[in-house]
Amino acid sequence: MRPPTVSIALLLLIPLLSILPVSVPVSAARRSPRFLGDFAFSLPDPSRHRKAAYQYETRYFRQRLDHFSFAELPSFQQRYLVGPSDHWARPAGPIFFYCGNEGDIEWFASNTGFVWEIAPLFSALVVFAEHRYYGESMPYGSRDRAYENAESLSYLTTEQALADFAVLLTDLKRNLSAEDSPVVLFGGSYGGMLAAWMRLKYPHIAIGALASSAPILQFEDIVPPETFYDMVSSDFRRESLSCFKAIKESWDALEDQGQGHDNLVNLSRKFRLCRELNNTAELSNWLSSAYSYLAMVDYPYPSDFLMPLPANPIKEVCRKIDSYPDGTDLLDRIFAGVSIYYNYTGTVDCFDLEDDPHGMSGWGWQACTEMVMPMSSSQENSMFPTYNFSYAAYQDECVHNYGVRPRPRWVTTEFGGHDIKTALKEFGSNIIFSNGLLDPWSGGSVLQNISESIIALVTELGAHHIDLRPSTNEDPDWLIEQRKSEISLIRGWIYDYYQEKVASFSM
Amino acid sequence: MRPPTVSIALLLLIPLLSILPVSVPVSAARRSPRFLGDFAFSLPDPSRHRKAAYQYETRYFRQRLDHFSFAELPSFQQRYLVGPSDHWARPAGPIFFYCGNEGDIEWFASNTGFVWEIAPLFSALVVFAEHRYYGESMPYGSRDRAYENAESLSYLTTEQALADFAVLLTDLKRNLSAEDSPVVLFGGSYGGMLAAWMRLKYPHIAIGALASSAPILQFEDIVPPETFYDMVSSDFRRESLSCFKAIKESWDALEDQGQGHDNLVNLSRKFRLCRELNNTAELSNWLSSAYSYLAMVDYPYPSDFLMPLPANPIKEVCRKIDSYPDGTDLLDRIFAGVSIYYNYTGTVDCFDLEDDPHGMSGWGWQACTEMVMPMSSSQENSMFPTYNFSYAAYQDECVHNYGVRPRPRWVTTEFGGHDIKTALKEFGSNIIFSNGLLDPWSGGSVLQNISESIIALVTELGAHHIDLRPSTNEDPDWLIEQRKSEISLIRGWIYDYYQEKVASFSM
């Protein structure tokens, strides 16, 4: 068994440092916030995570590789999980369908307790469907072959994944003789984007969607590119201005103390790395990632989603950083702080920075094709090194790493985003965009009601899709209230659907 | 120059006669109503048709062959026509966008006068976009190569065509600095289906759609398969019961008189065919097609859409059939009737039945892949020979002719259709489904309002997308009223859009 260290895949920009403008600090060029997909693959020991307490059956469904052409391509098996049907009011009871995102579906199933917990209230059947090219849902028979090259990866797209869900649901309902069952979609993060987009594209298949922490506006020029890092920074400043300042100053200290081989050796020792650093960028990237993920999982109770963490982990990190007497070396304080994230259990012997920038990761591919989310780091509000997003550099790296050119405008062409209020005010219905403002992804999400039934539920103290997580005894009141609102809205959708259905039978 | 004869491409079922159940008359097995696509290609002399009186510029736009994957495929040039911009209120004036269907876009442009005529009222820019794989918009550089085989044809799908429109419009608006222009979609027949589906799938790109004679419900089991032929038959019965009966009886007469080679020679002579019949099915198919197309273009004024025809052509056909004294040979009467359709100008020397059932036609491919519209002919209400749709036979023929298996459930999975009222009552907006009840395609269309802004405009005496045709001095009052309603609804969509837009600027 490998030691419980963590490696973070860093996919973008790394091989391109040499062509970046000189004014961009090396470390800045390496930050590229991602969803959780890389974690899903690189979790060093999945067995460390509590195995899902939820009961389900694992099934497989044969899918076309390209739904939108008739090219002769091999089909593949999509995995999906089906909860117990004993409380399901068949044949017209609701189906609660989780839109699997960039990882193993069992991981999402065990971290999306909300769906399991509320299903019995609705006499609903629970289905978790895995996203193609993740987990066991591999085209071409194996992950190695699916991820072999740009050709084999070329059907890893969001539209294909949505079509998988549409075909699966249509077939499932037919086989269950449940054609009249209302389907409600759920998803968090990228899965929330899928849920919202699926409701918009397939309204005849699903009557509504709970899209939690779904940054569907984090594209092109819809939100300022500084949004994400500014929000991470704001989460730290909110806990402690001195902590924020310490981190902001640490990058220069890190550059200073990392000049030359001997200093890099010292730095590696200071941060208890398993191997020696090749450059300071490796380290600053490792730190930046921790801060970003901390902002995402800044939950008010102890959790073990990405890592085992205490309640309010940013507060803990800052408390640690702030706890040292004047004169303590800044990087020692930084190390102590980040250890809250990487080593809360205190069992890590050394930290493994290793990642394979040329390795094919699913989210890396998606970021290099459709999911082009420009990210900058501002001088004023960010605690990270200043960085201005360069699409040219981004593209070059994608060509280098994946042999593919991104289509940065495709997502907004296919799914919209610009001026979303005008576009959807009189169109669409039954979507909840839930967001917590601590979550840095909330800045790219829908934070205002679009219409009477396209609703934004915003909590000031929520982090990344906390509402979807299993309930705990420590849930704060605002979270309990948020979930009540969600249940009430979903109940309304189903009620309206049944009423309309009965009316159509009676006509 | 070829003589003005007409050949009708018959694509389906022909090679399969031997495996059809014995009880199905040979002639019945050959009928397969189609859209106008085959005509668009086989029009013997396009110059016969009045060249568009409308002014436009022809442009080309480079498109991806597969929008939904990143497979490396050659791009192609999509043709589109742009009307004069002198009356366009740029940069926020509306764009009226015709969703090109299965044929040369110039043909649709010249037959869709409504759009050209009303554009100045709205200070709108007119754009007609050609559908991929039709007209000049050929992948792989030429029609021959695009239609070479199932592999080359595999990207001829509706979803790809809609994505072409979405990408073209997005780019066009950006290049015109007209991002805030409201786009209104127009389309007739399959083009109307595209317009409606585009409004549903790309609400952020187009604010509304006029879908004229768009049979989006002619799939699977949504409407009875007898609908189309029953409606054609009803159009004839409405004009004359004796005419209806004569046609209904003619198939047996045709079988009787077509037994053996000598009789086939006589039949060929009786119907003035350019070559001898190989079997009676060739002839019954030629007749059936005429009746179906007559029902589609049963306009109340002389027209020249598919063929030069008098006003109320079915009335004329029946008048001819009914005009002969008792004892006249039934097939002589039938020939006289059908000559109204095939030879109204009286200039045809002989009729050319020739078609190439193995030739690759665009609509044939679409019917063999996505556009699977089951068609039967009932014993009771149809004047055509009884025929029960057999999906197995249909599929076999598609495999034989195109080397492709249809996906008969895909259209309803992708676009919906079942229980459309429940699905869309609280979803979507700003679609007009206009239909004339003489049009046999109206039976597969939306004939009831779905919601406050998804509206069905139904005229009792209208035929196939008559509302989109150029206005004439002979337009009946109901047609003038119908168009007024359409103008009024479209004006409302644009008004609401501007109001919402101004409100969003003011916030």
Automatic annotation (TrEMBL), chains A, B:
Alphabetical list of Pfam families matching this protein: Peptidase_S28
GO biological process, one term: proteolysis
Residues annotated as signal peptide: 1-19
Keywords (A to Z) from UniProt: Glycoprotein, Hydrolase, Protease, Signal
Origin: domain of life: Eukaryota
Gene Ontology molecular function terms on file: dipeptidyl-peptidase activity; serine-type exopeptidase activity
Family recorded in the similarity comment: Belongs to the peptidase S28 family.
Protein's UniProt name: Lysosomal Pro-X carboxypeptidase-like
Lineage: Eukaryota, Viridiplantae, Streptophyta, Embryophyta, Tracheophyta
Gene name in the database record: LOC103713662
